[in-house]
């Protein structure tokens, strides 16, 4: 297949920054996919997930984030017999491989303990160097990038978000919200879903997620941010309400403060420092605006290493501070605001003893306390600081946010695996 990617240089407003390359969608790949019914319009559907999650960045514009010189060696697998562990489904106890691969449509599983490989499993064409669309796991990476800027005093999390994005002063919701409230999904925005969808398509349209933007008046995701409505049943900051546009606004704050693309800032502050084994791709629109809430394509090993940094106090295994210690501790501690806000959200029915802070969940389930990055098709990365265990899974589930798969994953699979690995 001839190479069809064409590169366009992004001009950064920072004179000291080397711009990343903006890659166009892979037209040859898209043409080939269309022969089996996968198109720009449906590539992200649950029915196509097993075919597309491993190749998502090829459908859109994207930037490649390059790994650093330091690569953490996870070592050889110490060994973990996945089938000796049993999981529960409606038809009773089953080997965990069956639960993960066949019932939860997982395509990979990586288990680390104290930064070393316990074992890894791959299905459905996955392997250790294969990237996978992380969907909302991306949100956590965007937030951690922002945290490094806050640590340096370049962003005040308690300031109004309009201090950084004055365009939002006309927004009935964002005009009242702080950066921290946006990061905690407590901004008070009200999203009116497009008919037949669970989201407002104007956001994905301006991101060119499914091809050409059919709303030419929306030049930037900021233009959509100005249009979102406000909840009238609560005050800003009171309730946890998970909305992707919040993360997109955080991405715009990062871009505004640094004068660089989100991909470039994430590359410099995270991708080159953690010890990742592979490059990654961040999906964008044709202007280079990143999909900050769901566009990261990375390997399962690398997202596991990111969680390992968090549960290691923000340090990579070389001992370098990558993520601020205070940020990590605040995630683990929570506060009254995020606990009260969580209680008003739908996820509290699944896990009442939990909270959402800075685009990362903290759960207390069945005697385990762990951090979690979560994606809508079953992408799950958890880390338990007390044991040093990280479990990373990349799913391609047909139904987004299925109650059955979410309950199975967090109430049964994760506690069972944590117990088994801890031994």
UniProtKB/TrEMBL annotation:
Residues 109-393 form the Beta-lactamase-related domain. Keywords: Hydrolase, Signal. Residues 1-19 form the signal peptide. This is 6-aminohexanoate-dimer hydrolase. It comes from the Bacteria. It is an enzyme of class 3 (hydrolase). SUPFAM superfamilies: beta-lactamase/transpeptidase-like. It holds the Pfam family Beta-lactamase. It comes from Vibrio orientalis CIP 102891 = ATCC 33934. The keyword Repeat does not apply. InterPro entries: Beta-lactam-related (IPR001466), Beta-lactam/transpept-like (IPR012338), Diverse_Enzym_Activities (IPR050789).
């Amino acid at each position: 297949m001839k190479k069809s990617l064409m590169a366009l240089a992004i001009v950064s407003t920072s004179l000291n920054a080397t711009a990343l390359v903006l890659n166009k969608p892979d037209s040859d790949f898209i043409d080939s996919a269309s022969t089996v019914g996968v198109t720009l319009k449906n590539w992200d559907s649950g029915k196509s997930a097993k075919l597309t999650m491993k190749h998502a960045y090829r459908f859109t514009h994207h930037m490649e984030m390059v790994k650093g010189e330091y690569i953490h060696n996870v070592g050889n697998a110490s060994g973990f017999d996945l089938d000796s562990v049993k999981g529960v489904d409606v038809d009773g106890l089953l080997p965990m491989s069956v639960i993960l691969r066949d019932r939860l449509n997982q395509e990979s599983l990586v288990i680390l303990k104290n930064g070393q490989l316990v074992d890894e499993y791959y299905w459905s064409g996955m392997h250790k160097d294969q990237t996978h669309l992380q969907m909302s796991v991306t949100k956590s990476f965007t937030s951690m990038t922002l945290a490094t800027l806050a640590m340096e005093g370049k962003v005040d999390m308690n300031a109004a978000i309009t201090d950084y994005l004055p365009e939002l002063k006309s927004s009935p919701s964002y005009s009242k919200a702080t950066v921290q409230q946006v990061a905690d999904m407590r901004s008070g925005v009200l999203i009116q879903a497009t008919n037949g969808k669970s989201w407002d398509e104007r956001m994905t349209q301006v991101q060119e997620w499914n091809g050409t933007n059919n709303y030419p008046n929306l030049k930037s995701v900021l233009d959509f941010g100005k249009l979102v409505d406000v909840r009238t049943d609560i005050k800003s900051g009171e309730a946890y309400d998970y909305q992707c546009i919040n993360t997109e606004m955080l991405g715009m704050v990062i871009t505004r403060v640094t004068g660089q693309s989100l991909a470039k800032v994430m590359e410099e502050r995270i991708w080159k420092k953690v010890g990742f084994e592979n490059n990654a791709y961040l999906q964008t629109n044709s202007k280079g605006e990143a999909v900050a809430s769901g566009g990261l394509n990375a390997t399962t090993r690398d997202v596991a290493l990111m969680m390992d940094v968090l549960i290691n106090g923000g340090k990579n295994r070389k001992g370098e501070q990558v993520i601020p210690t205070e940020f990590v501790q605040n995630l683990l501690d929570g506060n009254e605001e995020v606990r009260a806000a969580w209680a008003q959200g739908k996820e509290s029915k699944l896990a009442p003893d939990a909270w959402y802070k800075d685009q990362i969940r903290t759960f207390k389930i069945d005697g385990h306390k762990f951090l979690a990055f979560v994606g809508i098709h079953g992408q799950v990365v958890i880390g338990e600081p007390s044991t040093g265990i990280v479990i990373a899974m990349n799913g391609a589930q047909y139904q987004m946010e299925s109650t059955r798969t979410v309950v199975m994953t967090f109430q049964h699979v994760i506690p069972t695996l944590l117990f088994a690995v801890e031994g």
